[in-house]
Amino acid sequence: MARLIFRNIFLVSFFLMLSTSLIGSNEHEVAAKDQNTEVSDHHVTNNEATHEEHHTDTSPLFFIIIAVIIGALTRFFFQNSPLPFTVVLLLIGLLLGVLGRFDYLSVFDINGMTFDFSFMDRSIQWAANIDPHLLLYVFLPILIFEAAFAMDVHVFKKTFVNSTIMAVPGIIVAIVLTAFFVVGIYYFGFGLGKWNWTIALLFGSVVSATDPVAVVSILKELGASKKLGTLIEGESLLNDGTAIVIFMVIFVGLSGTVDSDTSPIFEFFRVAFGGVAIGCLIGWLIIKWIKKVFNDMLVEITAIIAAAYLTFFIAEYFFHVSGVLALVAFGLVMASYGKTKISPEVQHFLHEFWELAAFIANTLIFLIVGVVIAERTVFSLNDFILLFAIYIGIFIVRAIVIAMFFPAMKKFGYGITKKDAYVVWYGALRGAIGLALALIVAGSDSIDKEIRDQFLFLTAGIVTLTLLINATTMKMVVEKLGLTKLAPAKILAMHNSNVYLQQSVEKNIENLKTDRYLKRANWKTVRNYMPDFDAMDIPDNIQEQSVLAETRRRILEKEKGSYWHQFKDGLLGGEAYNLLTGDINTILDEKGEVSLSDRGDIENLLKTSSFLSKAQNYPIVGAFAKQLFFEKLIISYDTARGFVAAQEESLKLLESMIRAADEKEIVQLQKIEEEINENKIEGLTFLRNLGKEYPEIYNAIATREAVRNMLNYEKHTVERLLKRGRVAKGEADKMIANIESRMKQLRDAPPSFELPDAEEFMSEVSWLKEVDHKSFHKISKLFKSKMFNTNDVLLKEDKLQDGMFILVRGTIRITIKDKLIDVLGPGAAVGEVAALNNNKRAATVTAETPVTAMWISSSDLKHLVTDYPSVGEKIWEITANRYAYYLLKDIEPFNKLSEAQFKKELRDANLVSYSVNTSKDLTGGFSVLINGTAKDNEKIISAPAILSNSIFEFEAGSKVLFIVS
């Protein structure tokens, strides 16, 4: 209840402030009109004068109140009307304007009774003389942001190229062609005698901007393609910005308020891209702010509302760039990146608020548009002829534009069909923005009055005709094109759902009959209220593949909904939600024609950037990179757990489908069940591997999830106690506030995890177990832990690389010239020879699985070998055995030995180090040069190499493994 009261207070406050701004900003127009009214009656008392002033001040507020009431009544009484809501409002506005224009709203004397309606006349006059900038600064931020914020960002991205084609090159072509048409009217002597090319281009920019409010609402009502509606709305959002930018470039040039040296093309790009940049910047700042807020509806929504208006104001007033494009950018940033930063409990009301704000704004705009058209347009009979000619002309122009770009638009994103193109063409309505721009022209003293009157009348007329003709017949056009016709598979799915619903209601009635309080009910009457669906004509030739695709699509929608509910309940993080929904949106684009499990390996979806692994080696950014690496692992866990939970919910949905399916459908549903189970197994496998390879991280994340679940349960329990009356409202509010403070604490400072220290890791290294405790502690301090993801490269062949790695967890593969040499597990050391001798790497070392390794720099390794000779000897021994195994395993007689036998022989081999140059006869058996060089008949051999059947001279520092075989 408290939240509801806060919401109502918030809405009332917002619209009262809006009303105040409307009143104050247009006061001078009303005052100007009052100066032309005879009010100089010497018998008017001071009280009467005060009363008259009071009426003047409040008439705009009265219009707003009446307009909102008219909007509500219109929506209530015209719900089933074939006329769109905005068209009805326009007609009512025209009627009010006509009444005001011909002074039908004044003082009436009927049978001696006086009725004074002058207050209504003053309100209409205020609306008729409204400042056009007010429409842009007050109403535009609401409509533009609401449209952008409510946009499906994924669908918008896919239609963005086509929307941009229509909104940028398309509208430029439309403006030029419209100007040609208008100049042609003048050239052939049909009118517009004072118009020139500049005015014609200005007119083209005004009437080329589309307003799809009515069309998009009709498409949604009819269940037409979401992709088509998004294309039309996306074009409108972008071309509003483009048209206003072009309009202002031409208008300021016409009015002489711009530097003549400024290039129009440069100015266009500055205004357009400058607006986008400002919108993105403010969006980023607001996201940073609301990220720190937790379930505070008033703070979050106030910040977003203020930011929407601030974006437009800063762009237009301070930087003189496109406020519309700034708002579009801001709205899209909030709808994409900002969606998961807004508290889940605030999301619903936020959308409700903007829907209500858009409803009130549209109500006011279309009523004002009607009043302005009826009150302010000046016209002659010839103007009406010109109006109908230009109305036809602009749609011919739009048809040319669509035909020009149709071949390109078919290839981008979702593409566009011919039927879609017809709707895009016919649905190009004109609305309030065009009229606002025309009012700006009408108020410019630098333009001839006859031109201004014609400009306003023609623009207002086109707005009226597109709404009265196109908007009212759009439903018929869409249905005629068959864009609302259901596919056979959807008809079957709906039929099955209807049957299932009827059966469920039947079972419920039978259960109700056993209720002792209801058993005497008139069940015949009750059955009259049962669902009564129209008989559906189910086609006989429904293809199994189409039914399978439709079922998959419904399962995917369920999975997508599961992700949102998990996020809303605090069980799924924002980053994981974005990852999963982005992935599923891509699959939904396939229309169910691919397997549910054909979405790529989840390991790839969750793969950590190799850059983070490499960055750990750099001293300054290493710690930061490691932290990002850990955060990515946390997101991976969150994503995999949410993925598995969604698959389980999908299986439950499938079970209900199977219960209502026939034998033929069951076979297909079982195939989908296998696909879902494959996804589930893959997710569970990933979680199991994560727990095995990063146990500390896994345990910390599991702890955080346990706390999060506990807090959610606690909150739901309090809500349940409140519902049952076990606690009072005030007590429940305090309890929930306490819970939410802990939720915020968990979000901002989740339970941390710590990797085992170096000593714990190093205790598993076999060749350090004989070192005394004090020395072991000192040696451990030289090592640092590093983490690598699958396929990350630890060491690169033929490259100089600092340091040696000791593998603690996971496995690595050793390759030479892309040939697999060996796979090593925990305890293996790699890179020691190159590190000690500053040599290039002999082989490439790659992570076979996620790897945790201890790293020591080359300089520290050299000190270690010097300070602890026994450790150095052990390192060389392990290295010698590994090199010998690589080199000898494929030659006789070693290739005939089993791996265990061969490794036993290597353990029995003798590693010799030469401190001075030494000659050795190796004519019998095999030896392996591990380090240094050997000379054989003037031929120099570098390590590692096989030595046999010759006399070799070894340089000082060489190490040789002698093998008896």
UniProtKB/TrEMBL annotation:
SUPFAM superfamilies with a match to the protein in the record: cAMP-binding domain-like
Molecular function GO terms recorded: potassium:proton antiporter activity; sodium:proton antiporter activity
Protein name: Cyclic nucleotide-binding domain-containing protein
Annotated transmembrane regions: 61-78, 85-102, 134-153, 165-189, 195-216, 237-256, 268-287, 318-337, 349-373, 385-409, 421-443, 455-478
Species annotation: Vicingus serpentipes
All copies of domain Cyclic nucleotide-binding, residue ranges: 767-882
Cross-referenced CDD domains: CAP_ED (cd00038)
Keyword terms, alphabetized: Cell membrane, Ion transport, Membrane, Sodium, Sodium transport, Transmembrane, Transmembrane helix, Transport
